[in-house]
Structures are given as structure tokens and as C-alpha cells.
Amino acid sequence: MSKQKKKIHYAWWVLLGIALMVGLARGGIMTSGGLFLSPVTEELGIGMGSLSLYFSISAIVTMIFLPFAGKLMAKFNIRVILIVGVILQTGSFAMFGLMNSVWGWYLFCIPMAMGSVFVCQMAGPILINNWFKKHNGLAMGIMVASGGLFGAILQPMAGNLISSAGWRYTYIFLGLLVMIIVIPIVILTIRMSPQQKGLQALGSEEVTSNTSATETAVAKGVKASVAIKSSSFFALLIFFFCITAISSFGQYVAPFAMNIGYDVSFAGSAMGGWQIGTLVGALAFGVLSDKIGAKNTAIFAMILGLVPVIILITVPNNKVMFTVAICIYGFVIASVGTLGPLLTTALFGNKEYAQIYSTAVMGLAVAAMVALPIYGFIAQSTGSYTAILYAIAVMMLINIVSVTYAFIGKKKLEKAGHWN
């Protein structure tokens, strides 16, 4: 009995696999795109706004593909789905290194977006909800922190590689590197549910000791058909939209740095600082959510987010302050991956979580679709990023209101008898 208690629950091995997969795919592929914008536009003579449109196309594909992704993950073997997703995402990213026209980015961002839906967005929250009844917030935090950890390593490396070997080689190297590492990890660690290993989810034993078997067998929460028509869901969509638009600025940190006189190597180092902030923030937000709740943690994140925006508006030419601001900014945007799933669970429960979350994250896709090209065209037309930073500050204030309103809506759902 004592030996069984000391044995590591398989949920932690699943989390390790998720963390490595998401960390490498997000930190090495998804968040590194901004490092390539200036070098590619300069060499190929493409406008910043025109090239950044591929982010918008990716977002459109993501929005269209999200509902199908949830169904595919429920129907087919999760490992097969994720291997295909990894190949689509990393292979398409590597193909950017062979392109000579902006149409190449427009074309290959489509399969890249489809793959990233599985690998970076859907798999982690669904698997964690399946495997963790206890330490859910911590698990979400570790998953998001992994992106910061690997990003802190891969972003400066990518910046130096672009500087020394060129953007083409860097695209191909990063894409193949992530593919070769992640596929074996998926095969060895990922399982869809505890039942596939003859286990219960981590923490199920504690729940069972405090509740009846009937109560534990039924997940509590709001039905998806009711949830998506509620004021809470509308407020959650606004939060997802704004926080994604806020975090999308990460793709422009490198161009912003170079716009005010820094070189690509410093920009890569600054992005490394961003990823370190993400690493610390993800863990902090996971723990905070378990301690003070998702609502209070989200409000705290948005208030803190105003600090780096003010620094970047007032003293961007100071290297130390610039780096500090980017680190804090990375800390704050860690709330996207951590608080999104946790807010969804806090507002609507686990009864039909996958359906509700897969619909809510369409707000992320719409935001990326709108914000990224708008940022690009603003920078292209004004030659400055100041207006973008003011808009980000406004969106942080909107999010404080949205989160507060969402939880007022939750009380209405409870009074109406929908939360059961």
C-alpha cells in the first residue's frame, strides 16, 4: 500500500508529454514568427502589413477548423491526431524557408494553422481536464510555462541563427528540430484518458472520499446549449478576443525593437526575456488560480499588464527598461493559456467543457485574424508602434470589466438552475 502511494501517477507523465510538445511547438514555432518579419520583408521587398497577413489567414483557418478538431480528437486515436498535427505544423514552418513570394506564406500557413489547433490549442486543456481532478490550475500553468522555457532557449538561438546563417536556414532548422523531437514524445507519453491505462484521474480518490459515487460519476456545470447563449459566455469571448490581441503583440516585439534602433540579435534576446516572463507567469497564474480563483487572477494580470505598456511608450530606447518591460509583458500574457481554460471551467464547469471551450476559443482566432494584420498595417503606415501600445492598454481595461461581468452572469445561471 505504501509503495503504491509513492508511485508517480501517470497523469504527471502525460503532463510531461504535453509540456514538451506544447513547449517546443509554441516556443519554437508559433511565437518565433515575429523574428522573421523584418529580415524577410527586407530581403524579398514585401511590406510588413502584406507579410503579416499570413497571421490573419492562419487565424481564419483556425476559426473554421476548431469545431472539426474537437470532433476528430473525440473520434480518432489522440496520438495519431497529434503526430499528423505536428507534421503539418512543423513541416509547413520549415517550408517557409524555401519561399520567394509572399504567396508561399499565405499557402503554407493553412496546414500550419490546422496542425497547431491540435498541438498548441486543443490537446493540452482537454488532456489536463481528463487526467487532473486535483492540481488542475498547476497543470495548466506548467503546460503554458513550458512554452516560456523552450522559447527562452529557442528564441535567442533563432535570433542568432537568422543573424549568422540567414532566415531561410533558421526556418528549416527549427521546423525539422521540433518535428524530430516531438513525435517520439507523443508516441511514448500521450494517452487520451486514465481509463486507457486502467487508472482514475489524479485526485479522483479524494473526490470519492468526500462525495457519493453517484455525484462523482456526473460532471457538474452548464450545458453547452445554455452556456453559449449566456452573458457570461459573451463576456468570456470578449476576454479571449482582447487577451489574444494583447498577446499578439509578441509577434511585433522584434520588429518594434528594430524599428527603434536595436539589431536582430538584441531582438532575439528580448524575446528570450519575453519567454522567461511567460515561464514564470504561467506557473504563478496556475498557483494563484488555485489559491485566489481564476477571476481575481485575471484581474490582477490585466492591472499588471499596464506597467510594461507604460514603459514601452515612455522609455523604449533604454535597453534595460525595454528588456524589463518585455519580461513583464511575457509574464502577463502567460495568462492566455492558463486563465482561458480555467475561466471556462470556473464559469461553466466540466459537464460539457470541451464543447464550450472549443467554441469560446474562436474568440482567440478572430482576435489573431484581426489584430495581427492591423498591427502590421499601422506600423507600416505610421512607422511607429505607439498607437498599438495605447490600444493594448485600452483592451486590458476592457478585460477587467469583462471578467467582472462574466462572473455576475454566472450567478444568474446558478439562480436559474442551469449550473448543476
UniProtKB/TrEMBL annotation:
<dbReference type="InterPro" id="IPR020846">
    <property type="entry name" value="MFS_dom"/>
</dbReference>
<feature type="transmembrane region" description="Helical">
    <location>
        <begin position="105"/>
        <end position="128"/>
    </location>
</feature>
<protein>
    <submittedName>
        <fullName>Sugar phosphate permease</fullName>
    </submittedName>
</protein>
<feature type="transmembrane region" description="Helical">
    <location>
        <begin position="51"/>
        <end position="68"/>
    </location>
</feature>
<feature type="transmembrane region" description="Helical">
    <location>
        <begin position="80"/>
        <end position="99"/>
    </location>
</feature>
<feature type="transmembrane region" description="Helical">
    <location>
        <begin position="297"/>
        <end position="315"/>
    </location>
</feature>
<feature type="domain" description="Major facilitator superfamily (MFS) profile">
    <location>
        <begin position="11"/>
        <end position="411"/>
    </location>
</feature>
<keyword id="KW-0812">Transmembrane</keyword>
<dbReference type="Pfam" id="PF07690">
    <property type="entry name" value="MFS_1"/>
</dbReference>
<keyword id="KW-1133">Transmembrane helix</keyword>
<keyword id="KW-0472">Membrane</keyword>
<feature type="transmembrane region" description="Helical">
    <location>
        <begin position="233"/>
        <end position="254"/>
    </location>
</feature>
<keyword id="KW-0813">Transport</keyword>
<dbReference type="InterPro" id="IPR036259">
    <property type="entry name" value="MFS_trans_sf"/>
</dbReference>
<feature type="transmembrane region" description="Helical">
    <location>
        <begin position="137"/>
        <end position="157"/>
    </location>
</feature>
<dbReference type="InterPro" id="IPR011701">
    <property type="entry name" value="MFS"/>
</dbReference>
<feature type="transmembrane region" description="Helical">
    <location>
        <begin position="356"/>
        <end position="375"/>
    </location>
</feature>
<feature type="transmembrane region" description="Helical">
    <location>
        <begin position="169"/>
        <end position="190"/>
    </location>
</feature>
<dbReference type="InterPro" id="IPR050327">
    <property type="entry name" value="Proton-linked_MCT"/>
</dbReference>
<feature type="transmembrane region" description="Helical">
    <location>
        <begin position="387"/>
        <end position="408"/>
    </location>
</feature>
<feature type="transmembrane region" description="Helical">
    <location>
        <begin position="266"/>
        <end position="285"/>
    </location>
</feature>
<feature type="transmembrane region" description="Helical">
    <location>
        <begin position="321"/>
        <end position="344"/>
    </location>
</feature>
